[in-house]
Amino acid sequence: MKSRLRARLTAVKRPIIAGNSAAALEEIERFSLSIAAQDMTLTERKKIAAALAELSLLAEASDRGMRRAMERIVRITDLAHNFDVYDESGKMTRSSICDSTSRRY
């Protein structure tokens, strides 16, 4: 595979790993434009297909990791709503860590 295409693939991997989907889409668009502009042998096409399959796996893993992180944040927020706190006079009050009005999806 040509070094320019290899550099484009590396440029696509960085935002995927960082979880920056907008930047990843921009780099994928640049990569696809650079592929379309080149004549390639069957061997080069196979190498690119393998690299794209690897990118797909990486993107899926990044997506799963991001979803798990979001689920954990929701669980932590839900748990924080359930904390009961006693004030100085011994009176039980609700925790103000997360206000119920802040939950907008």
TrEMBL record:
- Protein known as: Uncharacterized protein
What's the source species for this entry? Paracoccus caeni
